[in-house]
């Protein structure tokens, strides 16, 4: 007799990963797939993949997926959800996509309180285009387009999206989580589940920011990237529950 | 058939509602504001979706989403806004998503003015956005056609899985004329097995235009071009006015075609043999018909509210078989009947 | 029949409403109608105008260069459009507001704003002008025009409708 202790979630395909060793996207994809299986919503899910490294997310997810133009995932998600309110709709976006070119769509979708979920993967750099400065790149961080480090005076400080969205009235749930350790990965899964359940209950807009390692463009080893996320990144982007059940907390 | 008095902009709105438009996403810009206002009232009234988006870009991407979900959907704007929508239009062409896009043109370039214009012809019929693609472009010349061609636009969009543009101008948008509507009209909807609506009982669908595999994108383009070729063979629409005996042929669309007809009526009274070929589809362009006529007439005059954009397509169709002249005004100005008569 | 009309004044004088009333009144009996307003920025402050063509045959060009009937509600409109009147045009001028009225046999002066104020309906000057037009040109019946006025003010208080119809009647009595 063999006993199954672990198997691939049904919501995940067996496609071979294209992500770099130590990348956080694979973990985030799998957590989403596990939550979708646990909630039994695979057959009613429509996901929106961003432009960025995760553009190929639809190769890994075993449910309906749409691409969106760079930054427009929130608008595409709005269109799908309004067209099919009974379906489950989430968008998966990186920091360049969501917080630079897609800032307007992000803020207005949250402000309308669309009944969708946004999974925001923040690793402080543009990955797919080759490690350029992102809106979330930290002061002093070297990238392909900030070779001497991000300069506060000419480039401004990193944008903190959870804090920004928390100024709006309608978001239902906002939390920043991290992938830096098994414990925080479990916490991340819980946050994803909270967000998904909120939509299923018709509660409105949920936003989960996931701090994620990118060894390639954080210019370190996979373990070094985990340390970067745990240390310097969380000093700027504190892991925190900003809002639950439609109300701000810790104020 | 009951006649109702409507503006052209409202006529498009009524056409969209009657055609079964499920979702409309707009953003204010003159001179198409009446249309957005019409939809803000009539879409919710019919339990359909209306959103005033945060930008033209957001609106067209909401259209992308609603279309991917299998619904009939539309957005509208005027020239500067259309420039912004080209991103979404190119993506929909690439992802093979049906949608109706309305451009109630105004004067340009830049912020230009709010007067009627036909200066977005190139943008509309030559693709406009990035990549090898075309949109079907319909050019109404009356309030009635604003309604009729909007209904047709939804059918063509679904049939060919691509964006279809209704290219109008501020004059027809603002003008009121009596029109008759399709009473108790039930649009014929086709199955969309490719739509994203949850993978219950089937394999997951995906809507995408990224084709990174070796040769994959070229193959996709070959498929798109085959579709465009079929459209060129099947869907050309034009209207003829007094062309049987004419020795001077006018070619004009939309508002310009109305003025051209006025000029013809005056010229005919003076015994001049003048006729009009009015393209209703600007893409596909009625080039075969124009080529045929070019062997029968002494000259062709193209009339436009632009510097001469359709003129180039007419010249290509004529292949040098007769002289092609041009009467046009720019920057929101409208050619007069008199200026056409002088050219005749 | 092929009548082209131009109504012009300043923003707020109700020339666009006037155009809609005439187009609505024509809907029943006139086969072809086009109505075209000036729109957008120029409505505010500058001259507002609208053009109407009524015809038996399909209207080719909705863009008129000369007009058979012109209603001019302020001096700026008079100065701008008087040159576009046909040789046999009927030109009705609001003489309360226009001080420099050329000596032209085609012009009929109506003290429209004063009459409307006297009737305690200062915004009804446009309808006084319309009444004068209805008397001088019978393309549209008084009955259809009255129905169109009622339609325009549908949902307003009875007194508002009655007040406007009174202005329209007074205009007919004058001319």
Strand-helix topology:
The complex is a heterotrimer of chains A (251), B (344) and C (175).
Chain A (H helix, E strand, L loop, with lengths): L24 H15 L5 E5 L14 E4 L5 H11 L4 E7 H7 L1 H10 L4 E6 L29 H4 L5 H5 L7 E6 L3 H19 L5 E6 L10 H15 L3 E5 L2 E2 L3
Parallel strand pairs in A: 1-2, 1-3, 3-4, 4-6, 5-6
Antiparallel strand pairs in A: 5-7, 7-8
Helix pairs in contact in A: 1-7, 3-4
Chain B lengths: L2 E5 H11 L4 E4 L6 H13 L3 E4 L3 H13 L4 E5 L1 H17 L3 E7 L15 H5 L10 E3 L4 H18 L2 E7 H5 L1 E5 L25 E2 L8 H19 L3 E4 L6 E4 L2 H16 L4 E6 L1 E3 L3 H8 L4 E6 L5 H9 L5 E5 L8 H7 L1
Parallel strand pairs in B: 2-3, 2-4, 4-5, 5-7, 6-7, 11-12, 11-14, 14-15
Antiparallel strand pairs in B: 1-8, 6-13, 10-12
Helix pairs in contact in B: 1-2, 1-6, 3-4, 9-12, 10-11
Chain C lengths: L1 E9 L4 H12 L5 E6 L9 E9 L11 E6 L2 H7 L3 E10 L12 E4 L1 H7 L6 H12 L5 H11 L5 H17 L1
Parallel strand pairs in C: 1-4, 4-5, 5-6
Antiparallel strand pairs in C: 1-3, 2-3
What would you say this structure looks like, in words?
The complex is a heterotrimer of chains A (251), B (344) and C (175). Chain A is 34% helix and 16% strand. With 251 residues, chain A is an alpha/beta fold. Chain A has a single domain (25-248), classed as Thiamin diphosphate (ThDP)-binding fold, Pyr/PP domains (Rossmann fold). An eight-stranded mixed sheet of chain A has the order 2-1-3-4-6-5-7-8, sandwiched between helices. The longest helix of chain A is centred in the C-terminal third of the chain and has 19 residues, at 182-200. Chain B has two domains: 3-189 and 222-234, 3-Layer(aba) Sandwich (Rossmann fold), CATH 3.40.50; 238-343, Rossmann fold (3-Layer(aba) Sandwich), CATH 3.40.50. In chain B, helix 9 links the parallel strand 11 and strand 12. Chain C has helices spanning 15-26, 75-81, 112-118, 125-136, 142-152, 158-174; strands spanning 2-10, 32-37, 47-55, 67-72, 85-94, 107-110. With 175 residues, chain C is α/β, with parallel strands linked by helices. Chain C has one domain (2-174): Pyruvate-ferredoxin oxidoreductase, PFOR, domain III (Pyruvate-ferredoxin Oxidoreductase, domain 3, 3-Layer(aba) Sandwich). Chain C is globular. Classes of the chains: A alpha/beta (251), B alpha/beta (344), C alpha/beta (175). The A-B interface holds A 42-46, 48-49, 55-56, 58, 61-69, 72, 75-84, 87-88, 104-105, 107-108, 112 and B 22-23, 25, 49, 51, 53-55, 57-59, 61-71, 73, 87-88, 91, 95, 196-201, 204-210.
């Amino acid at each position: 007799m063999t006993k199954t202790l672990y198997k691939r979630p049904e919501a995940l395909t067996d496609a071979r990963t294209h992500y770099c060793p130590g990348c956080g996207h694979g973990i985030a994809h799998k957590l989403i797939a596990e939550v979708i299986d646990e909630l039994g919503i695979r057959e009613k899910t429509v996901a929106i993949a961003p432009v960025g490294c995760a553009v190929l997310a639809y190769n890994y997810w075993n449910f309906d997926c749409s691409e969106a133009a760079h930054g427009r995932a929130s608008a595409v998600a709005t269109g799908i959800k309004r067209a099919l309110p009974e379906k489950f709709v989430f968008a998966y976006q990186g920091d360049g996509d969501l917080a630079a070119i897609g800032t307007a769509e992000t803020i207005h979708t949250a402000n309308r309180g669309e009944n969708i979920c946004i999974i925001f993967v923040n690793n402080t750099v543009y990955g797919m285009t080759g490690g350029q400065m992102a809106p979330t790149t930290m002061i002093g961080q070297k990238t392909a387009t900030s070779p001497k480090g991000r300069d506060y005076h000419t480039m401004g400080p990193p944008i903190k999206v959870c804090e920004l969205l928390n100024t709006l009235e309608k978001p239902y749930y906002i939390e920043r989580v991290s992938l830096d350790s098994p414990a925080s990965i479990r916490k991340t899964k819980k946050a994803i589940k909270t967000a998904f359940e909120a939509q299923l209950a018709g509660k409105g807009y949920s936003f989960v920011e996931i701090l994620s390692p990118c060894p390639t463009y954080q210019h370190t080893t996979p373990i070094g990237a985990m340390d970067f996320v745990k240390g310097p990144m969380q000093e700027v982007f504190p892991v925190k529950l900003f809002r639950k059940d439609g109300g701000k907390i810790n104020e | 058939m009951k006649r109702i008095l409507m503006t052209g902009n409202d006529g498009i709105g009524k056409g969209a509602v009657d055609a079964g438009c499920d979702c409309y996403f707009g953003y204010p810009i003159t001179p198409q504001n009446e249309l957005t206002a019409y939809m803000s009232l009539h879409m919710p009234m019919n339990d359909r979706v209306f959103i005033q988006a945060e930008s033209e870009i957001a609106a067209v991407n909401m259209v992308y989403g609603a279309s991917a979900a299998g619904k009939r959907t539309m957005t509208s704007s005027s020239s500067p806004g259309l420039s912004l929508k080209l991103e979404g239009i190119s993506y929909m062409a690439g992802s093979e998503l049906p949608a109706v896009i309305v451009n109630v043109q105004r004067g340009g370039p830049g912020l230009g003015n709010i007067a009627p214009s036909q200066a977005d012809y190139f943008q509309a019929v030559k693709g406009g956005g990035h990549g090898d693609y075309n949109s079907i472009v319909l050019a109404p010349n009356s309030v009635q056609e604003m309604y009729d061609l909007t209904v047709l636009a939804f059918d063509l969009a679904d049939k060919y899985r691509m964006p279809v543009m209704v290219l109008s101008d501020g004059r027809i948008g603002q003008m009121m004329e009596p029109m008759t509507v399709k009473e108790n009209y039930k649009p014929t909807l086709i199955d969309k097995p490719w739509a994203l609506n949850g993978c219950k009982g089937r394999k997951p669908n995906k809507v995408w235009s990224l084709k990174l595999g070796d040769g994959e994108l070229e193959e996709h383009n070959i498929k798109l071009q085959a579709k465009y070729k079929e459209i060129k063979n099947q869907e050309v629409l034009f209207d003829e006015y007094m062309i049987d005996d004419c020795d001077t042929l006018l070619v004009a669309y939309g508002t310009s075609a109305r003025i051209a007809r006025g000029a013809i009526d005056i010229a005919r009274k003076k015994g001049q043999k003048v006729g009009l070929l009015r393209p209703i589809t600007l893409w596909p362009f009625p080039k075969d018909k124009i080529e045929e006529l070019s062997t029968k007439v002494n000259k062709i005059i193209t009339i436009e509210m632009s510097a001469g954009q359709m003129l180039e397509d007419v010249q290509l169709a004529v292949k040098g078989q007769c002289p092609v002249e041009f009467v046009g005004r720019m920057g929101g100005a409208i050619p007069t009947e008199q200026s056409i008569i002088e050219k005749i | 029949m092929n009548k082209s009309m131009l109504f012009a004044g300043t923003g707020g004088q109700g020339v666009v409403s006037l155009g809609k009333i005439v187009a609505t009144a024509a809907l029943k009996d006139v086969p072809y109608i086009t109505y075209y307003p000036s729109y957008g920025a120029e409505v505010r402050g500058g001259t507002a105008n609208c053009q109407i063509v009524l015809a038996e045959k399909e209207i080719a060009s909705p863009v008129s260069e000369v007009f058979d009937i012109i209603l001019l509600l302020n001096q700026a409109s008079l100065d701008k459009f008087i040159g576009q009147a046909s040789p046999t045009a009927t030109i009705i001028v609001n003489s309360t507001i226009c001080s420099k009225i050329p000596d032209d046999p085609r012009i009929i002066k109506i003290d429209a704003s004063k009459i409307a104020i006297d009737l305690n309906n200062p915004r009804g000057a446009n309808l006084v002008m319309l009444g004068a037009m209805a008397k001088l040109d019978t393309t549209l019946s008084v009955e259809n025009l009255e129905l169109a006025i009622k339609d325009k003010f549908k949902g307003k208080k009875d007194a508002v409708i009655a007040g406007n119809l009174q202005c329209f009647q007074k205009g007919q009595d004058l001319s």
